[in-house]
Write a structure and sequence with these properties.
Helix content: 25-40%
Radius of gyration: 13 Å
Mean pLDDT: 94
Number of strands: 5
Number of helices: 3
Oligomer: single chain
Order of helices and strands: EEEEHHHE
CATH superfamily: Coenzyme PQQ synthesis protein D (PqqD)
Largest sheet: 3 strands, antiparallel
């Protein structure tokens, strides 16, 4: 099955009732929402922490590239794929 990736021009937002939270028990960030709990790794946490409902994926990629001192082209595909998977899991909406 082929999945259509969301375009970098979209502005992702957390879906209703979903939020990013630091879980003290697990000592990591999680996505928490109605009937959902997703533990995030460092990469997922970095991406999700940039989602503010006003920035496009292109904006997020630019900020992450500057923050981690990497070429934006090197992380574009990973960020788009991650955001697409979060849309499919109804964590993010566009």
């Amino acid at each position: 099955m082929t999945v259509d990736l969301i375009p970098a021009s979209v502005t992702p937002r957390f879906d209703y009732g979903v939020r990013l939270k630091h879980d003290k028990v697990r000592e990591r960030h999680v996505v928490l929402g109605p009937e959902i709990l997703i533990e995030l790794n460092q990469t997922g946490t970095a991406i999700m922490s940039e989602i503010d409902g006003q920035s496009t994926i292109t904006d997020i990629i630019s900020r992450l590239a500057a923050r981690f001192e990497v070429n934006p082209n090197d992380i574009t595909q990973d960020v788009i794929e991650f955001c697409t998977s979060m849309v499919m899991r109804q964590v993010l909406r566009t």
